[in-house]
Each structure stands twice: as C-alpha cells, then as structure tokens.
Amino acid sequence: MSRIYLSPPDVRTTDAESVSRAIEGGWIAPLGPEVDAFEEELAAVTGRRFGVALSSGTAALHLALLINGLGLGDRVLVSTLTFSATINAIRYVGAQPVFIDSEIQTWNIDTDLLEEALEDGEYAACLPVDIYGQCADYARIVPLCADRGVPLIEDAAEALGATQDGRPAGSFGGIATLSFNGNKIITTSGGGALVTDSPAWADRARFLATQARDPAPHYQHSEIGYNYRMSNLLAALGRSQLADLDRRVEARRRHNAAYRAALADLPGVEFMPEAPNSRSTFWLTCLTIDPDEAGTDRESVRLHLETLDIESRPVWKPMHLQPVFANCQIYGGEVSARLFANGLCLPSGSSLSTSDRDRVIEAARSVFPGT
Ligand SMILES: *Cc1c(COP(=O)(O)O)cnc(C)c1O
C-alpha cells in the first residue's frame, strides 16, 4: 500500500499533452499566447474583467498590496487563521498586520470583531482569507470596508471554484488573489494570479511583475520592479487544469461528504461548517476532536494515521501564535487557537481514490474508544 498524501498534485496525460503542445509551439521564452489565454479564462471563471498570471499566490498578494498603495507603517486587517504567505506579503511592503480571530460558524474572519477593529482605527487594507475553500462573509465585509473607504483584497488561494450567494470566489474586493501551488485546487506546479475589474490595476500588475520597464526601446526604469510573471509553459499546464476545475471541486466535495457520513457520529467530532449561502471547494476536509468528549485527541489520531502511512495535518497554526508575529495586534484569538489545538485536516486531493479514502476512515475510527 502506498502513502496517502494530504493534497497531492493531480496531473494527468491531458496536462502533459497541453505542455507538449506549448513546447512545440515554440513559445518557451517567458510570455506567450498560453499566458494571455489563461488570464482570460481565469477572469471568466472568477467573474472578473482581467486576470494576471504570476509566479505564485504570494507574489499576487504582494502586488495586490503594492497596487493599493500600501507601504511602511500602514495597518492591514487580516484573518489570523491562514497560511503565513498572507502575512509575509503584508510585511514585504513594510505594513503591519492587525489580526482578526475566526468566527466559529465558518472558521473565517469574525465580522463582529472586524467591525470593532474598523471603529477603533485607520486601516490601509482589509485582507480576508477564504479558509479551506469557503468564502468569507462578503455580504457583510464588502459594505463594512466600503463605508470606511478601506480597500478590500480577497485571498482566494484555497477557494478557486467556490461560490457565495452564487458569486464565484475571486469576485470580491478590488483585487482577489489565487494560488496554483502543487497542493491547491488546480496547479501549475508553482504559480498564482490576481484578478480584478480595473484595467489600470491589471496593467500596473503586469508592469510591476516584469521589472517595471518604462515604455522605451532601451531598458529604462523609474521604479523598482519584480520578476513575478508566469511562464508560457506553466500557463499551458494551468489551462488544462482549469478546464478540469469542476471535476476537481466535485471530487473534494465528495470526499467531504463521505468523511462526514462515516465519522460525524463519533463523540466529540465536528466538521468545519459550510454556511447555507456558501458552496465551498472543501480544499481540505477539516474536523475538530474535543478530547473531553472523544476519549482521544487530535494528535493521537494524526500520529496513528502516520503509522499507517497516511498524511494528515493540524489545522493552520494561527498567525498571532507564530513566534515571528508575536508582537502584532490581535482582536480575539481564542476561537482560532482552539481550532488549531483540536483541528485535523484529512487527505482531500482530487485524485484520492475511494479505497484510499476508506483506509483513512477506518484508521481514524479505530483510534476512538469503543469503535
Ligand atoms: C497557498 C496559499 C497562499 C500562497 O500561495 P503560493 O502560491 O504558495 O505562494 C496564500 N494564501 C493562502 C491562504 C494559501 O493557502
């Protein structure tokens, strides 16, 4: 039996063919027609006018902050329950994160605490994360930010293919960012994108991402730029992956439904909830194990799975508990701390077979006393 991974890349022969065609087309040098087409397709899927394909989701976040004019000392409201990339980008521009706890209903940014923070001070941006593939509560967040003139950026790295009130993930805020890292919903091995409705911002993103070259026949520069563009070959991979998006989301959602059906009866086990107006990608299926009720705990389950060559992970360690961000301001913090203490992410990749999923279920159940 081979190892079961948390969320491995799902790459097929159609993907290899797509990359081969791009190589044969001769567009190896970074930009080319595959990039242009991938950008149009990304914009269409996220309900936007423009997409800009980039080297990573982190690069997309960095550019989104730069485009919104963020710099030294600016303060950014951001979910504490996220991957470090979100906060690293804030630090790249010299800004300061102000962390907001999760709400227990969705694990996403707590909108009451967000409102409280907005009343307390001045912020240069608000950066909610669509955690584990579920959109944050934009029906509330969009007006909260708009009323105070705070730019909104959506970190949709885990949520490509999700919807809220029928609107696609990536459609919220002035700019939304996506990731195509190997473990995400679609992959270009490494890559990302930003999407926006603003032609000026899309142009600005492309300019900054290609070393900020002024329009001149010689190499002339009036600003610091970056080398953040996606290559034509990887865009070809992205296009065939994106054409398969619906199947990928369906597969992850099926895993979630199967895990719920097989494990929800266990004492002390609760799954990450899905809001009624929300259709999550369930990028990862996550549950919490209350040790007082379960007679076991998260670490016992995780370590047992590991002995059977099954990879699982604790829920993200919140950023306010990370040594590197220990001095940053936080509103609340206990909900996400508890999710981290008790939360487990199960193998959820779109290539996970039903027999491997059954292996995970059986292994997890066996740790609970009396099963
Ligand atoms: C993966 C991820 C990123 C970073 O994307 P990369 O492409 O790996 O740079 C940012 N935010 C969240 C929430 C992520 O999960």
Q: Could you characterize the architecture of this molecule?
A:
With 371 residues, this protein is an alpha/beta fold. It has 2 domains: 13-243, Type I PLP-dependent aspartate aminotransferase-like (Major domain) (Aspartate Aminotransferase, domain 2, 3-Layer(aba) Sandwich); 246-365, Alpha-Beta Complex (Aspartate Aminotransferase, domain 1), CATH 3.90.1150.10. The protein contains 13 helices and 15 strands. A 4-stranded mixed β-sheet has the order 1-9-8-5. A 4-stranded parallel β-sheet has the order 4-2-3-14. Helix 5 (111-120) runs parallel beside helix 6 (138-147). The structure holds pyridoxal-5'-phosphate. Pyridoxal-5'-phosphate (PLP) binds at residues 56-58, 82-83, 85-86, 129, 155, 157-158, 179, 181, 192.
Could you give the topology of this structure?
Elements: H1 13-24, H2 33-45, E1 50-54, H3 57-67, E2 75-79, H4 84-92, E3 96-100, H5 111-120, E4 125-127, H6 138-147, E5 153-155, E6 163-164, E7 167-168, E8 175-179, E9 192-196, H7 199-209, H8 232-242, H9 245-263, E10 269-271, E11 278-279, E12 285-289, H10 291-294, H11 298-307, E13 313-314, E14 329-331, H12 334-342, E15 343-346, H13 354-366
Helix pairs in contact: 1-8, 2-8, 3-4, 5-6, 9-13
